[in-house]
Amino acid sequence: MKEGILLCGHGSRREAAVTSFKKLVTILQDRYKTDYEVDYGFLEFNHPTYEAAVERMYLKGIRKIYALPVILFAGSHAKNDIPYELNTIQSYHSDLTIAMGKHIGVNSFLLDLAVKRIEETESTLSKLDRKETCLVVIGRGTTDPDANSDVCKLTSMLWEGMGFGFATTAYSGTAYPKVDESLQMIEKLGFKRTIVIPFFFFTGILLERIYNHVTDMNSTSNQEYIYTAPFGTDELLLKAFDERLEEAKSGTAYMNCQLCKYRKQVVGFEQDYGKEQIGHHLNVKGILFEEDEKPGEIKSSLSNKIKKALGI
Fold it and tell me: Which is one GO molecular function term here (predicted)?
């Protein structure tokens, strides 16, 4: 009997982001089709929800599912929201087992992919010594310092490995510094060129904002600001998913609990120690925002949405 793979997406208000995610799903379905039934779901905004995707696999006879988060770093989504959802779904079926894999995180494939995107961008520009270039790595930004520190680690490895004059980290939201704040500080350093690399899978609202900040800097500065493409569906990223799948199968998909604010008293986040693991996206789970629909409007119940996604 085939086992299942659930690709756990976040969801987006941007149709282009959802389309890009589904392209990744199609590629991974083809990659794993011999041994696995591959399906996908979204945490919020889009169909199908995780419940609907799991129900589809369950109706096909799948009783063992490996859930792979399509998430780069382990903030609250990977630590709380997705596990909460999966534990709840698994409780509906006594004969179903869902094993959650690890987020992509810091690994050699992601590092190599970042180098590839930077070099692709440099190949389109005039020749310039990297010592005269600043690198800015943009992470999603979370309220979890452990997740934010992973972005900083990759920044340091790219800085030292590629020989940039300076490198720093910024975030698209939640954490400090924000993208525009970081670029204003970089401007004062006087580098001839600044390359901005967003650590994002696909396009979406946040990536568009990052690109707009870079464009705005170019319109007011005598220095050069350039951004790279997102990671997309590159083969290096697919190899990272291969690795996370094998870890889920072998039971070695360990999270970093040593510096997790929920399991240790981390300086500045002592109040989060021991918090209950619970999702916080329930109010927008499975809600589709149509062009004539305002956020927060719910046109049908969640049960009807699941039935619609299942085609029943």
Answer: metal ion binding
Average pLDDT over the chain reads 87
Q: Tokens standing for 51?
A: 């419940």
Burial code (b: 16+ CB inside 10 Å, e: under 16) for 217-231 equals beeeeebbbbbbebb
Taking alpha carbons only, the member of 110, 160, 92, 96 closest to residue 130 is 160
Residue 37: closest CA among 8, 7, 69: 7
Model's pTM, two decimal places? 0.83
Residue type, 272: D
Q: What is the pLDDT of residue 264?
A: 64
Cis peptide before 177 (omega within 30 of 0): yes
CA dist., res. 225 & res. 36, Å (int):
44
Q: Tokens standing for 29?
A: 């379905």
Per-residue pLDDT for 98 more than 80? yes
Least confident of 43-47, 123-127, 152-156: 43-47
Handedness of CA 75, 78, 79, 84 (dihedral sign): positive
What was the pLDDT predicted at 44? 87
As a whole number of angstroms, the distance between CA 131 and CA 17 comes to 35
Tell me which residue of 51, 39, 49, 47 sits closest to 18, measured CA to CA. Answer: 47
Please tell me whether the peptide bond between 295 and the residue prior to it is cis, using omega within 30 degrees of 0. no
Neighbouring C-alpha atoms within 13 Å toward the C-beta of 147? 26
The token pair at 100 is 């959650």
Q: pLDDT per residue over 127-182, tens digit each?
A: 999 999 999 999 999 888 888 999 999 999 999 999 999 999 999 988 999 999 99
d(CA 217, CA 209): 13
CA distance 102 to 251: 10
Owner of token pair 């991974």? 28
- 294, pLDDT greater than 50: no
